[in-house]
Design brief:
- This protein is of the alpha/beta class and 276 residues long.
- It contains 10 helices and 8 strands.
- The protein has a single domain, classed as Rossmann fold, CATH 3.40.50.
- An 8-stranded mixed β-sheet has the order 1-2-4-3-5-6-7-8, sandwiched between helices.
Length: 276
């Protein structure tokens, strides 16, 4: 990502947020890779104590596995921290910054989820209430932590589950087949890489936000994902936004998607209903 594009993304999110971009409480390392250290940007609730057992969510930014910034989900993280959750924005390796391929992105996402679960007692987090969220390719990574059995770091303790208990997905990459997104980059391993093709009966409850004019993720793909999840007995709430394009959730429909995200987490019992 070039500097001008990074600044534009930050400004768009700040405008959508309605003021200055919120900042994390702290930033901590979670993984050392051959390409450098990766960190988690953590938003803690007011009145928070490390002895708490709060629900948590880990967000993964979008950018086609090529680029992007954890700050993409600072607004959502600050909002959920204000609602009582521990919200985390994860760094992961990308092609432009680290010269890695999409498999490294999935490895890092799984590592981030495992680290949060392993350190839950230190973070004031309930290890049985950790969600994953993300947008576009970041939505793919969140879904990947819940569905894919491959792409673990070779030396990682896989007895610690990377699987979230819920998914919050914004225009996510579901399908990596020939009909889906990014197939040419992952065609040698797409069947193991595509969340659509690795759904199981225990895939966690999911909420999805998608614009009807998204040129990367067709509405039909999201409907098929929902159909397959429900056929397995799972829950998939699909919210479609008329005439909205890719990345709409931090623009015109920020407040609307925030409201539905909140309702989803309330329905799980992770948040208390807002007072009217």
């Amino acid at each position: 990502m070039n500097n001008k594009l990074a600044i534009l993304i930050i400004l768009v999110a700040a405008v959508s947020w309605g003021g200055e971009k919120p900042q994390p409480t702290k930033v901590v390392p979670y993984k050392e890779t051959p390409q450098g250290e990766l960190r988690l940007h953590i938003f803690e609730p007011r009145g928070f104590s490390k002895t708490d057992k709060r629900p948590a969510i880990v967000f993964f930014f979008g950018g086609g596995w090529n680029s992007g910034s954890p700050s993409q989900f600072y607004p959502q993280s600050a909002y959920l921290a204000d609602r009582g959750m521990v919200a985390i924005c994860a760094e992961y390796r990308t092609k432009k910054k680290h010269s890695t391929d999409p498999r490294a992105c999935v490895m890092d996402a799984k590592s981030a989820m495992r680290w949060v679960r392993q350190k839950a007692g230190r973070l004031g987090v309930d290890p049985n209430r950790i969600a994953a969220g993300g947008g576009s390719a970041g939505g793919h990574l969140a879904a990947a932590t819940a569905t894919l059995t491959e792409f673990d770091e070779p030396d990682e303790n896989t007895s610690i589950s990377c699987k979230p208990q819920a998914l919050v997905l914004f225009n996510p990459v579901f399908d990596n087949s020939e009909k889906g997104y990014g197939h040419n980059r992952v065609k040698g391993y797409w069947a193991d890489f595509s969340p659509m093709h690795n759904l199981k009966k225990d895939t966690p409850p999911t909420t999805v936000f998608l614009g009807t004019k998204d040129k990367y993720i067709p509405v039909a793909t999201a409907k098929e994902y929902k159909k397959r999840m429900e056929a397995n007995g799972g829950r998939c709430d699909l919210h479609l936004y008329k005439n909205q394009s890719h990345g709409f959730f931090n623009k015109a429909k920020y407040k609307e998607t925030q409201k539905e995200m909140d309702k989803f987490l309330v329905s799980l019992g992770w948040l208390k209903p807002k007072k009217k």
